[in-house]
Structures
1.
Amino acid sequence: MAGKPFIHPYIPNAAPATKQAMLDELGLSSVEDIYAEIPERLRFKGTLDIPPAILAERDLRRHVQGLLDQNTSCVDFLNFCGAGCWQHHVPSIVDEVINRAEFVSAYCGGDYSDLGKYLTRFEFNSMLGELLDYDAVANPIYDWGDVAGRSFRMARRITGRDKVLVASHMSPMRLMEARTLCQPEAMANSTKIRFYEWDRETGMVDPDDLRAKLDDSFAAVYWESPGYLGTIEANGAEIVKIAHEHGALAIAGVDPITLGVLAPPGALGADIACGDIQGLGMHMHAGGGCSGFIAFKDDDPVFAQECPLELYTVTETATPGQYAVGEALAERTSYGARDQGKDWVGTASGLWTIAAAVYMAVMGPQGFKELGETCIARSHYAAKLLGEIPGVQIKLSPSFFKEFVVDFDGTGKTVAEINKKLLGHQIFGGKDLSAEFPELGQSALYCVTEYYDQADIETLAAAVKEVTA
Amino acid sequence: MSETPHEKVARLAKLRRDGGVLRDYQAPRWDEPFIMEQGAPGERGILVPLAEDDVTAAVGEAASYIPAGMSRAAAPELPEMAQYQVLRHYLRYSQMTLGMDLGSDISEGTCTMKYSPKMHEELIRGHKAADVHPWQDEDTMQGLLEIVYNTGQYLKSISGMDAFTLQPGGGSHAVFTNACVMRRYFEAKGELDQRSEMITTIFSHPCDAATPMVAGFKVITVMPDENGYPDLEAFKAAVSEKTVGCMITNPEDTGIYNPQIDKYVEVLHDAGALAFTDQANANGILGFARARDAGFDACHFNLHKTFSSPHSCEGPATGAYLCTDELAEYLPVPVVTKVGDKYHLDYDRPESIGRVRGFLGNWMGVIRAYAWIRNMGPEGLKEVAEISVLNNNYLDNLLMAVKGVSRPYAEGHRRLDQVRYSLEQLKEDTGVGTEALRDRMVDFGIQSFWMSHHPWVVPEPFTPEPCETYSKDDLDEWAAVIKKGSDEAYADAQFVLDAPHAQPIDQMRRTEAMEDPKEWAFTWRAYKKRILKQK
């Protein structure tokens, strides 16, 4: 192939006759005449250090698929790891819709030409608003950790206070992202993150410690439910009450797939909720399936005005009864106001909102309820079987939805050792917590969703028993 | 000689197409109700697995594990709808979305709307990519890590940089990453007290101003000189011992390559500051100019623009951030490394800025970019740049012949990958400005054009970018649509001002909803409560 001339199928005007006709039209002898705009000293003269082209589609497919086939997927193995990215079943209809060429290839087209995208976006916001019990849902961005940090900054702008009080068993990864957004404390406009304690026996927040730490200098109190360690927070309404007594906002971090059975943050009185929609119809994509949302009550316009993400409102057209969707308060975003805007927005996760819209529509209220009940039942079944293995203990409160802490201290083995051995049984074990939460000893965070059935769980238990023996 | 049937069809088609290449287009108009208005109680869209009897017998009722007061009291008011009806609803919405694959996205300048090969979609949809958990043992994801690592090497070569991360979840996110890396660099040097100002230019993307603000810096924006270049004297005046660095584009949105770009970088380096260039739009310079060769310390690429990953209704996207060895230790964790034949996720980087995103990043975009780069090879990448630049100049020739269109700045200089035009003359002559023309052009099956980021330094702006994907016929058609809009404006301006005329809906009204808290409704429940109640 090398040296033979070819016309790349993605570059039509490379066809010599066309190219020449275009050059003739412009009165140029070659494209070099245009590149004369770049001075010689700034021109790259070398050859890019990139392997020769693999031209034929068949050959390229073979090459890249060959690389991907080196991976072991969660279809190849059983997977009991979640920790912020969860393996739920993705309905085929979701993939069918989001793989439509129109949606895959659309970008920021106009209100009319890309109407379907905007209508879907509004429906996503509307259905997520029902799950969360909020009137306002903003257009999602990167992921949960990012929107947690943005919620802190939003609370700071609303209250004029520069500290937030965070439950100290917040996901360490999400905390790292939030810190990046909140700036080093020495900086003049930083948002300071302080912590209140959690109960090491139950996994719930410690309301007494919250009361002790909170004063009128805080912009917000943040908690997660279910928390990173899996427990369903029992004190949600209490946290809201305590926060409001001090004029602080209450911010709830939630996994929306739990809300068919769990009380939504709106009903608990939280002012702002944030979280990740990955479970709502996204494949995991090694974490690329994540997308973070921000929602609020919208009873005071200051929340919309200080919201850092795009807001879309339903509106109408010249024809009675015909709807359109438009961006509200666009001038407050970075696109409208550059460095005077509220944080920034950008290309982030539009297709995932379409997936989640389809997911919520097919699930309906009954689907979410049943899914919640199955997650709770099967995860508790797994916890029960694992807890019966000698040396293995289930930690924290039994109030969990799909994730729970398994303590292997009594086996004399580390989580790392156990997980390596589980690979031999074609199983991905739970997330190793020993570095993030040393007080939990050699513990792992296990996740059991509706994706895995009774037989899978029994396979897991038998394998854990064998590798810990 | 009498006309053959074939000739007759061709003659009539030409007539219908206004003598040229214009289409007689009508967008799908489904008059589809919102999904929240559809379905009926009891309908199901999907059935989910239920806990087995043994499981329930062993653990009891699920509700017993929910703390008091934490059970959901009222069911969410979601649609109750059978699967076919849900599918049909969203397929109708997809049909009412023009997208790049159907429309001609020459329109969306600054976005580099190139063809995203379909084979790459098959690669990312398979379970070996889609159903991988981010916390899996790295031994079980060596294929992915190899793709990420090698893509990083290719981007290093294209930019001349030494180190990379593919963690950012979009272009603006990579730009934010830069602001944080620079922040950490000066924090480590103990100069963060002293250095608090970031410099950008008005023709650089808004994120080059917004993200350093979020990182905690004061932002100084340099305006263009009479030739459209960032004013070098104003730039010099802005740089001081307080400067962190710059975050600028070249070519800027105007498409004009700044031939003195290295001088700006020198000014910064002389003041001990750093220089970053936003290369979201690198299509015109691939293999022709490298950020490092102009002295920059860091740059970024959007894998969903220059490197063919699709835009997917605004994400998921991938930002590639590249920097010199001097900044490498500050990159977010984990960094993908190679030791011997094995690939690793390196978290042991004490000077790192931490994280900008959870887990690993949007690697779907990386897989596609990897496939695309391997498909192009070094010569192919240069051809991409060459043809996109040729296309742009060919289109420019056609557009400059359209009445009412002008091209401000740098007369006599050719643009690279895109051009910012002005319709100021058209607006003055006819009252039809850029927004009206944008809403008219879609009636010809062409995506509405990108006008400009705010503020509009160029009055009544529009910004096409005819990258290598588009054929000569595509360019002719696009220019013909703009000419048609101009002709219509001079003949019957009101017709254009009343546009669109062939779209899924008519012209939008009730625009007070965009600003007024009493009128906006961000969800259907809010609309029912606030707006429908009033009616």
Note: Chain B touches chain A through 222 residues (CB under 8 Å).
2.
Amino acid sequence: MLGIYDALIAPFTEFEFMRRALAGVIALALGGAPIGVFLMLRRMSLVGDAMAHAILPGAAIGFLISGLNLFAMTFGGLIAGFAVAILAGIVARITELKEDASLAAFYLVSLALGVTIVSIKGTNIDLLHVLFGNILAMDDQTLLVIAFNATVTLIVLAVIYRPLVIECVDPVFLRTVSRAGAPAHLAFLALVVINLVNGFHALGTLLAVGLMILPASIAKFWSRDITGMICIAVAGAIVSGYAGLVLSFQTKVPSGPAIILVTAVLYVLSILFGKVGGLIRMMFPGKHLEA
Amino acid sequence: MTATNQWRLCVLAICAATATLMAIMPLRAQEKIQIVASFSILGDFAKNVGGDRVNVTTLVGPNSDVHVYTPAPADAKKIADARLVIINGLGLEGWLPRLVQSSGSKAAIVTATTNITPRKFGAHVDPHAWQNIANAKTYVANISKALSEAAPADAEFFRSNAEAYRTKLDALDEEIRLWTAQIPPEQRKVISTHDAFGYFSSAYGLVFVAPLGVSTESEASARDIASIITQIKTQKIPAVFLENISDPRLISRIAAETGANIGGTLYSDSLTDEKGDAPTYIDMVRHNIRVMRNALAGVTLRR
């Protein structure tokens, strides 16, 4: 009994940085996982990754202008992300080009611009290492920014929930009954950007996307309705965050990768044993109910 | 008539000036040996030995991290134009051999750590040999030898420069021992961001602990941070230090959690620009030991 306490609880009671890391991961999960579910339902899972690349240069520019200033970097990242999302959305709506193609084009432009600006300025500190936080180094500021962003995400998501869900399942129907589709879509893209910036602050590097997309993919194997999926995704993300931190504490694996690796294990288990479309379920379907 | 004469004179003067310039320029270019140093500390050594007979460019400039540097085409060009390329070796500049190959350079590569016995971490060697002054003197000797081979006519000049610089290093060594002696022995413990002071530690008897490994490339695990925090608490280590090339947030977190002071910034792998605390190697070492002494001996910084 004591062994279990030492392994699972003691790291958090003993060290403040572990408690802060856990708080950060939970905030991240609450905001990011629902966004991940919608991204998945709209077949935009990879958009998250593309947007992450688009955000990186903005944050880098913020860093170059005002040093290691959380707000400058967040602001830079948000601007770059919004600019790419909105431009891509506009191009997709007024031209023949599909949204994914225009997004790919804009994020590459953003990335190239960012790299160019950074090299002209001539710093050679590895930006990925310096720019983005470490889950183990959560200061008050970072924690507040993450919690604030998660709160905003949940509130906005509540407001645009209906049009967003309808657009996921039947966009044509939505267009016939309401004009909320376009604004909801834009607001949603904005939320994607906000949560990616959040993830950067906490997990560092591009792993940020992991805590958004993987829990959503896990949820898909356990529930058929959106509410269920969102709940399972959030729970999955929180569990992985906690287990990842414990894993990193007990085995010396770096924390960011540890968290994502735990989600990956849950994902594989879900593929195998998932209630909805899991491999084992499909191979050995349960008995039909007989009257 | 006078106006025309003046005009002619002008043309003549310009012609003469151009001719002189053209005569001088290639000569000058031949005179100075073009040297490329992989990072700022080596560049400083080379400047001290070479004086005005050499032209030193560094690839990884001030306040930048040599462990994870990504070379640009301009760097390949610098190397292609160089007579000598000075590197640290011991695995510090993993990116450099390919750069030299691809630049098609005929430059001689000088490994500044030749004849230095490296510290070992299991299978890895610690590249930060310059943190021990005795090693720095070997660096200087190696660079002086390489310069003399490249320009035998100036060998005497390089030798006397190196000699003068080594005298300065000896004085610096004395100074470090003096400052270290002012720190009570039980307080000679330092926490810094990456493990760069191993040579310094074994030469001058301060114990260093760092959350990141020998290279800034590694990422810390929760276990590492926890063990450092425990260590600071149990051994009552008074101060932690930042570095100019690593993320300060992790060390700030550790300081906040243990109540240790942030003693200041240490410079390990990179000098600063002219206005900074450590524009030269000697300034760097002097700055480091003063910051450590002031933080560990419980005296407030004068600056």
Note: Chain A touches chain B through 36 residues (CB under 8 Å).
